[in-house]
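Predict structure. Input: SNIPE associated domain-containing protein, 220 residues.
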Amino acid sequence: MAHIANLEAALAAAQSGADVIDLSDQRALQDVGIYRYHHPLENAAAYKDRLRSLEGQIDDVIKSSRAILAADMFTFDGSLARGRKLVGDLSKLMLRAYNSEADNCVRSLRSGNVRTAQKRLESAVTAIEKLGAIMEMRINPEYHALRVAELELTADFQIKVQEEREHARQERQLLREQRRAEQELAAERERLEKERAHYISVLASLRANLALSRAGLSEA
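Output follows.
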């Protein structure tokens, strides 16, 4: 129980201290309108599909008990069975703490703070490795890489959604301007047509008056 309490306290300290991290160069670039995609894909739907596939890979690693690497010959009170049970229990605790941190990083993620989130996860990995050193316990690098990819894809997805929304907004604005121009053109055509009809009417009236005048002169 003391081991578990120490692990929980150390992981909590690592998580709370991980927030004080300088913004990355990526954030600075984004502030001036530049974003570098970690995994360039065509559209938001493609990112959503990739994330679903990645979630499946994450689940597979967890279900196959490969997320945590640990010694399988650790003994506790001279008992290998008790040692393995302790390792198993602590592995579940550590994985739960790591996954909680990873999930928090994903939920609080903004496109410009990917590196900050990665450092938070790396801090959790380091804390687990230090605390589990006696049992050779650590996060599987394969599993950690999947969770980091999840962060990167989520950030890319957020930016792609923003881009598509902005593109849709610009298209709607363009369509509104096009309709307004068409309406103005139609109104101008109508005005010109009325003006033309007026001139034709005036001209016809002048010609009629001129014809009457000539007829009157002829009779005289």
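Residues 2-170 form one domain.
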